[in-house]
Amino acid sequence: MSDKLSFEFLTRLNEKYKIFSQLINEEEFLKAEGRYHFHFSAKDNLCTIDFQSRAGSRILDGYTPPFDATAVRRLRISGGLLIGKTNMDEFGFGTFCTNSAYGVPRNPFDPDRSCGGSSGGAAATVALLDGHIALAVSTGGSISCPASFCGVIGITPTYGRVSRYGLIDYSNSLDKIGLICRSATDLRTYLPLISGPDSLDPTSCSQPILDLSSSRIKRIGIPKEAMEGISGEVEAAFRKAIEITEEQLSIKVEEVSMSSLRFALPAYYVLATSEASTNLARYCGMRFGIVKDDVNAHFNTFFSEVRSKFFGKEAKRRILLGTYCRRIGFRDRYYLKALSVRQIVKEEYLRIFQDFDLVVMPTMPFIAPRFSDIQKMKPLDMYKADFLTVPPNLVGMPHISLPCGYYHGIPIGFQLVAPHWEERRLLHFAECWESVFEYQFPEVKL
Amino acid sequence: MKIGLEIHLQLPTTSKLFCSCSTSATEPNEAICPTCLGFPGSRPRLNRKALEMGLMIAKRLECRIPDVIWFSRKTYFYPDLPKNFQITQYESPIGVDGKFLFDGKTIRILRVHLEEDPGKIKRVGRVGEELSLIDYNRSGVPLVEIVTAPDLSTPKEARDFTSSLITELRYLIGISDKDEQTVRVDANISVAEERVEVKNILGLRNLERALEFEFVRQSKMLRAGKKIPRETRRYDEERKVTLPAREKEFEEDYGYILEPDLGVFNVGEIAELMAIPETPLMRVERLSREYGIGLSEAKKIVFTSYALADLFEDLYSKYPTSKALSWILDQLAANWSTLEKKMTEDMRNSILTTIGSILSGSISENEGRKMLVSIIKGEEFVGASQELNNQEVTKIICSILNGHPEIISDYKTNKRAANFVIGQVMKFFKGRYSSDEVAKLVINEIERRLSR
Q: Considering CB atoms only, which of B75, B257, B263 is closest to A203?
């Protein structure tokens, strides 16, 4: 940890960048001073007993859970001080962090640009605070995307590696808790702390032990389909990074074909919204979501009122999409078909991993966009921006986004994917990469 | 008339289906936790015991059990459902294509699956000022749903079927005695072509009533030349009628998706290794098959008591006669309930020995009956168990032979001549002594006189 953190600094940082949806209060902060080993933040969809946990949604305003998420609890008992809940797109629904009910976080490299989503607050906080560890969550790219836009490291472990107990669900078969930080050293320190089986989440219980011992990376594959539709500046930075990899790290990088790549995005949106629309059913004003005690209306009317009033626009869109995909007559065509597509994409990855140690591609097709440009985008354009982050998420394979270049000072990232449970390959590559590429962090002026 | 049933029964586990909350709380909202209240971020964990019970039921109903099963989310909005989806099974029930033999008839079982119960709504207060209170103790309690093919043909049969199914399951996994009143059934009934579904019938009595009402209603409509519309109805217990259910309440599109938090379960092997204890109906079938007795007799024995059935098996394996069966059925089954209360090992042995003696002919039936009565009353029996009073008997034999001297000469050519004397002696002593022993004495006396 470098500079000592001050409460005033945090407050002013948040005022400028809107990175937290709730910040630790001064009293708690001062009480903890000198008594913690590191400071960390948790994305707002991770349950915490001492902070509201609203998942960026107005419908959960005022909700403080009765338990800590396992990942939060594990960092606390390891001596971490939770300094705040980071801002996010409502329930994780977004690529630019513009769908939060609690303000839009700003990119530390350029406040007119997006910090990415949905773990935007988390990535921006890490870019702004040296030594900070951010617990983030990815469903379809919500760690890689903001990490790339904010010039930091974002690791999304294998599905099931980190217990999801206490994660406010977006899409349970896709949600993964990971870390955003500044260095491979931090990854090596903090990833083991949050990993491991947890009886409170059965899907975390069949994992092999996290082995971070060194591994050799000899060959990396680039799916050629991944390079279609990449902006010039991203492509240039990416090609340069590949050159460095080949020349300075002596790793062979070859193009491969991955024809199923283009099916990953539609399959992902079908599955994710299908699950989301059931997860969000509970926010109806009955037990969760702006609960009123004295209600005198038919439950249907009352539930609809609460949901219409307090869900944001994107949440409603995804509930509708997901409900549609699950309906009789559409279920086979969309939901069940998407499950098969997921299998096909997985098999294609596994085929590639027979010859390659990792798969690499740019993380995002463009650099962090300006808010004014985002306003002009249609929902479908926004969904399309996820086409490179979605595939590894769809199949639950671990991946990492690392800064790989800068375009007029705006960071660009590339994303590496490893086979299930092989986080150590990502870590090993990150360590090698740091030895040949220098990360830049923004100058913080308050 | 064709009737098909969907029967919901609570599994007798001590904890809920997906959390460790107790299933036997008494105070409202006493047994609740983040999981059964659907808190965001809580996760279900499957209760292994419930899975085993479900598999046992599927196995008993001779279902095909898949190697792998999973759970699904059935989404609908209702105030008693904390998550607004129910975790149930859709594509992969724990059992399919089974059957249940009952009163000589085969009822096909379409599927058996596990699911969680919602909470319970209680309406209190005066009409117009009603208040709805919700008790979540029931939320997450494990249920098994058993779906039959439309193989039942009368309301009475539907009731009897459900009743014997419940009895079976009580022996199999120990479901509660209250289940006859608390069993929840959805019934499909078609008098003509079109199928009418009556939802949410509580208890066996209501089941029969609701079906009878539907039978009459549909028959009347048919006689009046009307068509029966396909619809969903509910049973009004107080007015004892079925009424059309509001369409919205039973919107059929539940948008099933897989429950991603639970994953898949390899149950094939567990089911294979699982031993099924013999249930009453299984025993009825076995008794009938092994001992060649009628199903109805076997049923009477087994349903009187398992102990009686044990006794029957001990006896019948030595004396496989219709007489043995009638001793069991006429003498013992009738009084079994009082008998069973005071039954001891000694008493059981005496009963077995006595009936054995009767069947082997070493004591007379009359004698045997009296002995049984005494054994049952717990008295020392003074009679056949007592030494035969030779002197007394011989005295009577002599007086008969003295009165009928022709018997001695007849006996020389026809040994059966002795039977008259035996009969007279037995009659005199009102069957107090065993005919075998009396016969021995009679023949001794005749031979003695002949050799003289």
A: B263
